[in-house]
Amino acid sequence: MRECIFCQGMASTLEDVWPLWLTKRFPSSDISFMEAELGGRKLDKWRNKTAKLLQVRCVCEKCNGGWMSDLERQVKPIIESILEDNIKTIDVSSQTLIALWAIKTAMTLESSNTHRKRFYNDAQRRELGMISAIPERTSVWIAKCVNQPNIYSIAKDLWTASGQDVIYGYVTTMAFGSFAVQVASIRPPVNLPSGTTIKFDVVDGPWDEVLIQVWPIPRLRRWPPIKGLTGDWGLEVLTNRLSKSVHVVYPQVRI
């Protein structure tokens, strides 16, 4: 039996990647994609039959019924308020819960493909479960969708350099009707100097008007954003907004 991805226990329970309280809002949705990409080259793409059948045996009963259940209970009224257009501002606490939920979901979604090496390591997943620690160099954004009635997900591996200084990225884009969330994490080489800044190149677009960043440094935000993402095309643009290229800014060294 496999180990729980969030602790050292045995993965004894099936986990719904998309929680039932959310999938029941989209009974006709059959969209759920995963996509692997290295250095801009697509390697693989697979599709689940229906969103409701997206279950993975990757967690133990203690995690599933403990902190994971607590997180779902806390984030549920926030996401439901967003979906029902009953919210005008999103406070810091709510943004942090959305970010924790998004990265937990991205980690669980990643486990649905057993044929690839996981991007998030054991320490990152266990720290999320034990102390609600989001991995370093991770950013989370949310957006509003228009004319998008389905569940949508694409996760991409990005290989942003070659040689010994490989910089890996992993971007998960998800949408549930009018609510979209994107998680982007970077794994730098071990020899990278501390204090080095790494940023994905971003495809041109009105992202300041479309996206609300909820992690890192959450602060009071107005909802909804000025502009929304329209249909499948809008989600495709969001999925591809982060380039395989990166900017690396090394810290200045005084002599």
Could you characterize what this model shows?
- The protein contains 7 helices and 14 strands.
- The protein has one domain.
- The protein has 255 residues and is an alpha+beta fold.
- Strands 6, 7, 8, 9, 11 and 13 form a 6-stranded mixed beta sheet that branches. The protein has a two-stranded antiparallel sheet with strand order 1-4.
Short descriptors:
255 residues, alpha+beta, 6-stranded mixed sheet, two-stranded antiparallel ribbon, 7 helices, 14 strands, 27% helix
Task: Describe the structure concisely for a colleague.
With 255 residues, the chain is of the alpha+beta class. 27% of the residues lie in helices and 32% in strands.
Overall radius of gyration: 18 Å
- Estimate the global geometry from the Cα principal axes: globular
Low-confidence stretches: 34-41, 48-52
| Average predicted confidence as pLDDT | 85
Oligomeric form of this entry?
single chain
Beta-strand residue percentage: 25-35%
Tell me the number of structural domains: 1
Number of helices: 7
Run of helices and strands = EHEEEHHEHHEEEEEHEEEHE
User: Major sheet: size, sense and barrel closure?
Assistant: 6 strands, mixed
Helix content: 25-40%
Helix/strand-derived category reads alpha+beta
- End-to-end Cα distance, whole Å, is 55 Å
Tell me the total number of β-strands. 14
